[in-house]
Specification:
CATH class: Mainly Beta
Distance between the termini: 33 Å
Organism: Aotus nancymaae (Ma's night monkey)
Protein name: 2-oxoglutarate and iron dependent oxygenase domain containing 2
Number of domains: 1
CATH architecture: Sandwich
Bound molecules: 2-oxoglutaric acid, fe (ii) ion
Domain Fe2OG dioxygenase: 155-249
Number of strands: 12
Number of helices: 6
Largest sheet: 8 strands, antiparallel
Structural class: alpha+beta
Pfam family, one: OGFOD2-like
Cofactor: L-ascorbate
Radius of gyration: 18 Å
Strand content: 15-25%
Length: 290
């Protein structure tokens, strides 16, 4: 119980520290590419992504039609690929992130597994970029692809950029995400190695099989369930920056915490916190094993 209290206290402190960094960055960080902070424009998005989102939001859309417009990486694992950003937007975002990385601003790290990279909400990029991306584009798409995982009820996210380089982080161990659904977009730069690999669902352990290897393509995103075990192979050359958006649906996680598979006992937090809510949204029928 003491350990639990300490962990609750640690997380509460993390939330406060993050809010403090965000305020300092908002008041004294000088942007390199201010256009990245403009409200998300269609021009930043790949035509294929716009088409997929527009189709998904149309009244006659169905899963079959959507699958004709996306690349299925694995039908069994329900992993998909779609171009997300244009090359110029990836370039501009990378320049901004690199400029921030080199600045003397305080940096919160994405999660317990990555030592480099940044949290997008601390940079002030949630409101102009990530929230519109989730609400306007990802929500209709995810509603069709993963209705049983809260795809139609996404109401928060945790977005960050992971960076891999020689002498820094090189690889990522096998894990599952604190998310119902995940979008992982390769932003660049030039690199070899670093492929993602996917195993089974953590909630439904299966006999050890060969993991599925998925190469990155700059500008393209991989969509997967948060519970799908995955990791990243070691980087061999160059530098790899990926935008990872952990998408959350309180309608699902309020009933079944994705990390411990139990009904959560909530503690108040800043911002989106870990994506739980005290108010009950409409629920979805969930099965932890799908
Ligand atoms: O290295 C990557 O691109 C994967 C990152 C990832 O899976 C995560 O941060 O949850
Ligand atoms: Fe992950």
């Amino acid at each position: 119980m003491v350990e639990l209290e300490q962990e609750v206290e640690r997380r509460r402190r993390l939330g406060l520290e993050s809010a403090t960094r965000k305020a300092l960055i908002a008041s004294s960080y000088r942007l390199a590419r201010p256009e990245v902070y403009d409200s998300l424009q269609d021009a930043a998005l790949a035509p294929e992504f716009l088409a997929v989102a527009e189709y998904s939001a149309s009244p006659s859309a169905d899963l079959k039609g959507l699958l004709q417009r996306l690349e299925t990486v694995s039908e069994e694992k329900r992993i998909y690929r779609v171009p997300v950003f244009t090359a110029p937007f990836c370039q501009a975002l990378l320049e901004e992130l690199e400029h921030f990385e080199q600045s003397d601003m305080p940096k919160g790290r994405p999660n317990t597994m990555n030592n480099y990279g940044v949290l997008l909400h601390e940079l002030g990029l949630d409101e102009p970029l990530v929230t519109p991306l989730r609400e306007r584009f990802l929500q209709p798409l995810m509603a069709l692809l993963y209705p049983d995982c809260g795809g139609g009820q996404l109401d928060s996210h945790r977005a960050f950029v992971v960076k891999y380089a020689l002498g820094q982080d090189l690889e990522l161990g096998c894990h599952y995400d604190n998310a119902e659904l995940t979008l992982n977009v390769a932003l660049g730069k030039v690199f070899t190695g670093g492929a993602l690999y996917f195993g089974g669902l953590f909630q439904a352990p299966t006999a050890l099989t060969e993991p599925l290897e998925v190469e990155h393509m700059v500008g393209q995103g991989i969509l997967h369930r948060g519970g799908q075990l995955h990791g990243a192979r070691p980087l061999v050359t160059g530098e790899r920056w990926n935008l990872v958006i952990w998408l959350r649906a309180s309608a699902v996680r309020n009933r079944l915490c994705p990390m411990c598979c139990r009904e959560p006992d909530l503690v108040d937090d800043e911002g989106f916190g870990d994506g739980f809510t005290r108010e009950e949204p409409a629920t979805v029928d969930v099965c932890a094993l799908t």
